[in-house]
Write a structure and sequence with these properties.
single chain; alpha+beta; 2 domains; 5-stranded mixed β-sheet; 10 helices; 19% strand; Transposase; DNA binding; transposition; RNA-guided_DNA_endo/Transpos; DNA-binding
């Protein structure tokens, strides 16, 4: 292996999300309708080929059918049409489906606007973005200073409140490994959002539950704008909480381990509202990219039997079964150590995480 291959990467990829001015909404909505048309066409095309030939089309195969589409009235860059095909194939594989959901352009079930693009379709000039097929440049609140980055691929997206954002991938210098030396394990839950191996607990915020009554009133009154505003408020509050908590964790630790709780599986049970309100998957995603950016070690650890295993002697003597779920404190039958159920689970997650490193960061202290 060459020295160049052994050299560690000095750059990483980040996604910058910036708000676009509302005056572009009409033009972007028109482009989003064209995107939906292309998506539905290639989705249906792929499904029909599978029905006839029992094979899936690749993005390269689909591009042969969409070649020249932008010359027939579609107000989209050719690279955007290619990006749509690539995204459809990626999501079809991810969700293991033969046909994906139809994108709706009008009515109460309208899909939120989405316009993917490749790097060649976008240029930055004098505080604005020049986007192919748009007559006027896109004005935005440039809170990151885009002039200092080389812009890559991304997408323009709409939120539930009708506001438009541009999401751009950029390359940034990779941070040096954090100087923090402590390691922490976390057990995610519903009553408490997280219990840590240090004995702390973070209370779960009821973002959706707190607005559920107001949301029901708005929905019964058929006030769509008010309903969208409440949903946006819930999402913003949840995101703010998760960002602040994850940033605090990354700033104070050199290694972070989280249990691999199956959020998607629990979201299909009677606890669905509470699970989705907690935002576990979003939180772990935030931790992962923030740790990577700050040079902090992050890992998701198998949490099976973590609430039953004694963190002092590792004997599996804790409460078991459905009846044992209500027991929040217990004492080990082998060594007599007293445990808080969630804090003990966090300690087990920490121990398993450190064990997986096999001495790779032996200087870290719990």
């Amino acid at each position: 292996m060459s020295a160049k291959q052994n050299k560690p990467a000095t750059h990483t990829t980040r996604v910058l999300r910036l708000r676009l001015k509302d005056k572009h909404a009409t033009a972007l909505q028109a482009m989003a309708r064209d995107v939906n048309f292309v998506w539905n066409y290639v989705n249906d095309l792929s499904f029909k080929v599978w029905q006839r030939e029992r094979r899936f089309l690749s993005a390269y195969d689909i591009d042969k059918y969409t070649a020249g589409a932008t010359k027939e009235g579609l107000n989209l860059p050719a690279t955007t049409v290619q990006a749509i095909s690539k995204e459809l194939v990626t999501r079809r594989i991810q969700h293991k489906k033969v046909k994906l959901r139809w994108r709706v352009s009008r009515g109460s079930r309208r899909s939120l606007g989405w316009i993917p693009f490749k790097a060649s379709a976008l240029r930055y000039r004098n505080g604005q973005l020049l986007f192919s097929c748009l007559d006027k440049p896109l004005s935005l609140w440039d809170s990151y200073g885009l002039s200092q980055y080389k812009l890559g691929a991304g997408c323009i997206s709409e939120d539930a409140h009708g506001r438009w954002y541009i999401n751009i991938t950029v390359r940034v210098e990779k941070a040096q490994r954090s100087e923090a030396t402590s390691a922490i394990g976390m057990d995610l839950g519903l009553k408490d959002f997280a219990a840590t191996s240090s004995g702390d607990k973070v209370e779960a915020e009821r973002f959706y539950r707190g607005q559920e009554a107001a949301l029901a009133i708005a929905q019964r009154a058929r006030k769509k704008a008010r309903t969208r505003a409440i949903h946006a408020k819930i999402a913003n509050r949840r995101k703010d909480f998760l960002h602040k908590f994850s940033t605090t964790l990354v700033a104070g630790h050199g290694a972070i381990f989280v249990g691999n709780v199956n959020a998607a599986g629990l979201a299909r049970t009677r606890m669905a509202k509470s699970v989705l309100d907690a935002g576990w998957s979003t939180f772990r995603t935030m931790l992962q990219y923030k740790c990577d950016d700050a040079g902090v070690w992050f890992d998701e650890v198998e949490e099976a039997y973590s609430t039953q295993t004694c963190s002092a002697c590792l004997a599996r003597s804790g409460p078991k079964g459905l009846k044992g779920l209500g027991i929040r404190e217990w004492s080990c039958l082998e060594c007599g150590a007293a445990h808080d159920r969630d804090v003990n689970a966090a300690k087990i997650i920490l121990a398993r995480g450190l064990a997986r490193l096999a001495g790779g960061i032996s200087s870290l202290s719990a």
